[in-house]
Amino acid sequence: MPDIRTIGVLTSGGDAPGMNAAIRAVVRAGIFYGMKVFGIQKGYNGLIHGDFTEMTLRSVSDIIHRGGTILQTARCPEFKTEEGIQKAVDMARVFGIDAIVVIGGDGSYRGARDLSKHGLGVIGLPGTIDNDIGCTDYTIGFDTACNTVQEAIDKIRDTAYSHERCSVLEVMGRHAGYIALNVGIAGGAEVVLLPEKNYDITKDVIKPIIEGRNRGKKHYVVIVAEGVGGAIEISNAIEEKTGIESRATILGHIQRGGSPTVYDRVMASRMGVKAVELLKNNITNRIVALKDNKIVDIEINEALEMKKNIDESVVELSRILAL
Ligand code: ADP
Ligand code: F6P
């Protein structure tokens, strides 16, 4: 296989804080190792339509602290068709691109795998606030999103305390409860509802709140993951069944923005450099991951097969600490 000399970098799927730090790392490390690096705008959309800019060291100045992604992102249905993939591959060839670094989630990796089947080299970097990618212990953006939610919980606690109310907070995570569980522990929630687990409103929500009241609690925080949904209905049921005033807040996309934390910046930087080091050694079709606190790389098909489950002992811990 010839040396990889020209690479592209794109962000795909939902944005996540730290994606810019990852782009910066790919561009700087790529140029350091003598590669030409193209920034591809709006994910696979930009790849299909040739929306490329050659990046310089200065293209990524002053972005490490910025949320979102300077390359912008998109969900691209056309890319899921054979015709779309072929257009993307042809476009990459026109610009002499040998390999592409894809920063995104599982969906984006499936697209990357399709590119690799057409002979284009790919490396995936985990970028999503959900932390729900099977092959890695950590995804870029998770820490920042959790800290954003934490700040909101702390504020909500102030007003819940003042009014002796219950606050029901819906956080992101359509299919995964990692944000909900993490902030449930960090924010001292009485109840945490996860999409991975069925719940019964009486047994799992009303009962622990009444028991808490009987033990002297005066205000309550309930975290509901987006995939569970129904925060307003849950709040109404609490008020109706317990007589405790309750208010619902849906945090929404505020969780996706904001300046990345130190952890996300460092993780994104390490993973971005790892991606380029693989390419420098002509290694492609891998996903960069964090495993047991080490940055590793996993073959893309194997990575897509890997599953990760909510740790039951952590769920139990959150219940114990809510007493
Ligand atoms: P994420 O990467 O965060 O999981 P999506 O699931 O929205 O986000 O996927 C992002 C993009 O990746 C999609 O818009 C599409 O272009 C591409 N993609 C997703 N799933 C597939 C698939 N099964 N095959 C090919 N491309 C896919
Ligand atoms: O995957 C990240 C995520 O923020 C999920 O937590 C959420 O369900 C989804 O994206 C929201 O997507 P959109 O930005 O399309 O509303």
Please provide a written account of the structure.
Helix content is 43%, strand content 18%. The strands form 2 sheets. Strands 3-2-1-4-5-10-11 form a 7-stranded mixed β-sheet, with helices on both faces. Helix 1 packs parallel to helix 9 and helix 5 crosses helix 6. The protein is elongated and about 70 Å long. The mean pLDDT is 97. It has 2 domains: 6-141 and 260-305, Rossmann fold (3-Layer(aba) Sandwich), CATH 3.40.50; 143-257, 3-Layer(aba) Sandwich (Rossmann fold). With 323 residues, the chain is of the alpha/beta class. The chain binds adenosine-5'-diphosphate (ADP) and 6-O-phosphono-beta-D-fructofuranose. Adenosine-5'-diphosphate binds at residues 12-14, 44, 75-76, 79-80, 104-108, 110-111, 114, 128. Belongs to the phosphofructokinase type A (PFKA) family. ATP-dependent PFK group I subfamily. Prokaryotic clade 'B1' sub-subfamily.
List the strand order in the largest sheet.
Answer: 3-2-1-4-5-10-11
| Secondary-structure element series | EHEHEHEHEHEHEHEHEHEEHH
Count of helical segments?
11
CATH architecture of the largest domain: 3-Layer(aba) Sandwich
* CATH structural class of the largest domain: Alpha Beta
- Overall average residue pLDDT: 97
C-alpha-based Rg, rounded: 22 Å
Strand fraction equals: 15-25%
Number of domains: 2
Which ligands appear in the coordinates?
A: adenosine-5'-diphosphate, 6-O-phosphono-beta-D-fructofuranose
Q: Which ranges are low-confidence, i.e. pLDDT below 50, for 5 or more consecutive residues? A: none
Query: How far apart lie the N and C ends?
Result: 60 Å
The tally of beta strands, per DSSP, is 11
Main β-sheet, in a few words?
A: 7 strands, mixed
| Global morphology | elongated
* Helix share, percent: 40-55%
The chain-level structural class is alpha/beta
Kindly report the CATH topology of the largest domain.
Rossmann fold
GO cellular component, one term: 6-phosphofructokinase complex
EC number: 2.7.1.11
Pfam families: PFK (PF00365)
Subcellular location: Cytoplasm
